[in-house]
Write a structure and sequence with these properties.
Number of helices: 10
Helix content: 25-40%
Low-confidence stretches: 82-112, 128-136
CATH class of the largest domain: Alpha Beta
CATH topology of the largest domain: Quinone Oxidoreductase, Chain A, domain 1
Radius of gyration: 19 Å
Number of strands: 17
Strand order of the largest sheet: 12-11-10-13-14-15
CATH superfamily of the largest domain: Medium-chain alcohol dehydrogenases, catalytic domain
CATH architecture of the largest domain: Alpha-Beta Complex
Length: about 325
């Protein structure tokens, strides 16, 4: 079966034939109807993350149908998410890349059209989120699988009276979280690359009360800020936009180095935290919230063999919403 494989010999994925995996007890074989291209995939291909063993097939934002299982009823619809429930129920998992962020080829083959997953790493899709055979509905539902759940996990760090929310990097996760925040009655302030008027207009259309370039200061001090862009320089910029007691949440798995900044920007009980992973509770709480908020996703669809183009578009910041591969 066909798959786009990363061998590490070049930054390009290679179209290859790989073996079909066989599910065992406690596993489910998922037929992938759509797969998101996310920043984690780009970090793997660009060498920012060095743990994965090669060769591998990137892609964990899966909006699938279960084709057959080792122990469970057939045809149940599932979503694969990069989380594992820990005994202490925290989001911290040192082996995230080995459990979900990539599908390994060496040893036990995986392919983009089918994924062998532990039942502990999947959640059943709520009825109506995606329906088989409806391409438009499928593409709408796919980005909800992982990227926005990460935003929801980040949002948990903002508990309390944090009404003014800044979002740095207005991409796949951000455009969904923006809609949820607006539904919750929050004011959203969107920060994009300098000169990206299209992304700023996109944010306003989704309900942001203000949109500007990342170095700009918003008209009001923020209660909290979430950074989705993997740019360490955004951390001190976001700190300078916070009120006293405000919080910066780093929502990505990788970020470039954070430059030094004056202690005064952190003083008065401002804080910086990161989101390491997702829990099953994040996923189970997320989908009902999506339904209540009436979230609509914007996607750009690519054939499987055009995965390199999708990665390049993500790298260049040329996407509005989420990139989705359709096998």
């Amino acid at each position: 079966m066909r798959a786009m494989v990363f061998t590490g010999k070049s930054p390009e994925l290679e179209l290859q034939e790989v073996a079909r995996p066989v599910p065992g007890p406690g596993q489910v074989l998922i037929r992938v109807e759509a797969c998101g291209v996310c920043r984690t995939d780009l970090h793997v291909v660009d060498g920012d993350l060095t743990e994965p063993k090669l060769p591998l097939i990137p892609g964990h934002g899966v909006g699938p149908v279960a084709d057959q299982t080792g122990t469970q009823e057939r045809r149940q619809r599932y979503r694969v998410s990069p989380f594992r429930q820990r005994k202490n129920k925290t989001r911290i998992c040192h082996a995230i890349l080995r459990i979900a962020a990539v599908q390994r080829v060496a040893g036990k083959p995986r392919r983009i059209a089918e994924v062998l997953a532990s039942l502990a790493a999947v959640i059943a899709s709520p009825a109506g989120v995606t329906e088989p055979g409806d391409a438009n509905t499928l593409l709408h539902g796919q980005p909800l699988a992982t990227c926005a759940q990460n935003g929801n996990a980040a949002d948990d760090f903002m508990a309390g009276e944090r009404r003014r929310l800044g979002i740095y990097g207005f991409g796949a996760a951000a455009h969904i979280l923006c809609q949820i925040a607006v539904h919750q009655g929050r004011e959203v302030y969107a920060f994009t690359r300098e000169g990206d008027s299209a992304a700023q207009e996109f944010a306003r259309r989704l309900g942001a009360v203000w949109a500007g370039a990342s170095p700009d200061l918003p008209p009001q001090k923020l209660d909290a800020a979430i950074i989705f862009a993997p740019v360490g320089a955004l951390v001190p910029q976001a700190l300078s936009a916070l009120r006293k007691g405000g919080r910066v949440v780093c929502g990505g798995i990788h970020m470039s180095d954070i430059p030094s900044f004056p202690y005064a920007d952190l003083w008065q009980e401002r804080s910086i935290v990161s989101v390491a992973n997702l829990t099953r509770a994040d996923g189970e709480a997320f989908f009902p919230l999506v339904a209540k908020a009436g979230v609509q996703t914007e996607t750009a669809a690519y054939p499987l063999e055009n995965a390199n183009t999708a990665l390049q578009d993500l790298r260049r910041g040329a996407l509005q919403g989420a990139a989705v591969l359709v096998p």
